[in-house]
Amino acid sequence: MKSKTIFYCTDCGNETPKWQGRCSACGAWNTIVERPQERVPKKTAGSASRGSALGVPASRPKAMAEVEITDELRFLTGMGELDRVLGGGAVKGSLVLVGGAPGIGKSTLMLQICDSLCRFATVLYISGEESERQIKLRAERLRVRGEGLYLLAETNLENLVDAVHQLSPDVLIVDSIQTMYNGDTSSAPGSISQVKECTMALMQLAKGEGITIFVIGHVNKEGSIAGPKVLEHMVDCVLYFEGERHMAHRILRAVKNRFGATNEIGVFEMEDGGLEEVPNPSEALLAGRPMDAPGTCVTCAMEGVRPVLAEIQALVVPSGLSNPRRVSNGFDFSRSALLLAVLEKRGGLIVGGCDAYLNVIGGLYLDEPAADLAAILAMASSFRDRPVPHDLAAIGEVGLTGELRAVSALGQRLAEVQRLGFTKCLIPKRIQGKLAVPEGLELIRVANIREALAALL
Question: Which of 103, 158, 203, 327 minimizes the number of CB atoms within 10 Å of its CB?
Fold first, then answer.
C-alpha cells in the first residue's frame, strides 16, 4: 500500500494537502515541507492498552468522587517572589513555562531555586545549551550546593525521558525547550513542530508521573515566546522574565496561572552573586527620585494583588520639526498620544507643537488606566516648568472629555501611598463604595484635569 504524505509549515505547523510556495496561515515563504503521515495502529480485541511512544503509561478515566484534591500539593521554591507569582508555591505535577530574552537571567533563576529544592526533593537539571562542567561552574558562582541535584547535557527527547524514568526526580528543569528535538519529527530543533511535540511529551510526563517541570523558553522579536501560540495554552503557568539587560532590576510576571492570580509580579535585582529578591519594590523603584524637579509624578499601579508605586517622568519641549516627536517607554504609546490630545483640548495647554517624551522608571510597564492622571500631571509639569509636590501621588483614569473616573482597589493603593511616606494624594471626586482613608494622608478630590492643574500647577 502506498504511504500517504502530508505537507506542513515549519514556522507555524499548519498542515496542507499539497505543496505551496507560501503558507496560507502565517504567510511565510518556502517553509512548506513534506513528511510521511503517521499511521495509528488499530487495537485488536483483548489487546493490552498502549502508552505513548515515549513510555508514558496510559491513564484510565476516573469518577469525580474518586479524585483526591489533596494531590494538588504546593511546595515552596525558596524564593519568595517566585512563590508569590506562582500563587503560593509550585504545584506538584504542574508544567511551568518561563520565557524571557537571552541573557535576562532565566537560567540563573532556575539554578538558584535548586539550592532550596534539593533540601527536600530530587532535582534533575537538563540543559541543551551548556555542558555539565559549565553548569557546575555557574552553580559555584551562585553558591548553589550540589546535594540532590543531578545534571544532564542532552537535546534528544527520548534520552531525556529515559533519564527521567531512571532517576524518578521530583522536579525537572529543561533549559531550553528550543534546543530539544524529537527524532520522530523530521524538522530541525527549535522549529514550531519540534517545540510543540516536545512540550506535549513533557506535559504527559508532568501529569502522568506527577513531576513538577520548569521549562525555559526564549522570546522572539515581538516579545512573545518563540513557538506556536498553542504552546502557552498547553502549560499550566506562563511566566515572563522582563527587564532591560543594562538595568539591575528584573520583573517576573505571570500572564497565565491555573493555580493563582494572573498579572502578579515578582521583583529581583541582578547582583554579582545572582538574583536577589526585592521584597519592597515600591521603595526600590522610587530610590533616587529627584526632589522638586518638573516633569515627574508618582502613581500607584496594581500588579495582580500587589500595589506598586511607580514614577512617571515626562519631557515636553518646543519642537522645530513640522511633525513633533512622540516617544513612550514603559507606557502605551497610543495612550500617551491620547492623553496629550486631552491635555491640549480639555486642559488648555498648547502642546501640539511640542516634542513629548514619556518614561516609566525602573523597567515597569504601566498598562492600566489608573496611571493616566499621573502621566498628564507629569507632562503639564514639564510644559509649565513647575514641579508637582514631591509628597503627592496621583491616581485616576482620564476620559476624553477630561473627567476623572474611579479606579479599582483604591483603598489598597492609598495604604501603599501612605506607607511610603506620601502625605497627599490626588484622586477622582467620585469613587466607588466607602473609602477608608489612612491616617496622615490628605486626599485632594478633583472632578476633571482642569481642577487638577489648578490645584497643583
Answer: 103
Mean pLDDT estimate for the chain: 86
Residue 376 has pLDDT above 50, yes or no: yes
Q: How far apart are the first and last CA of the chain?
A: 83
* d(C-alpha 301, C-alpha 395), whole Å: 8
Query: Is 364 exposed, middle or buried (CB count within 10 Å of its CB: 0-12, 13-18, 19+)?
Result: buried
- pTM, to two decimals: 0.73
What span, in angstroms and rounded, lies between the C-alpha atoms of 266 and 213?
20
- The Cα angle at residue 303 between residues 301 and 309, in degrees rounded to 5: 35
d(CA 378, CA 395): 13
**Which amino acid, 440?**
G
Q: Are 122 and 169 in contact (CB under 8 A)?
A: yes
User: Which residues make Cβ contacts (< 8 Å) with residue 285, sequence separation at least 6?
Assistant: 249, 308, 309, 310, 311, 361, 362, 364
User: What CA–CA distances, in Å, run from 433 to 135, 302, 408, 409?
Assistant: 54, 18, 10, 11
Do the Cβ atoms of 405 and 372 come closer than 8 Å?
A: no
Of 212-216, 220-224, 358-362, the poorest mean pLDDT is in 220-224
pLDDT at 49 (0 to 100): 43
pLDDT tier, 344 (very low <50, low <70, confident <90, very high otherwise): very high
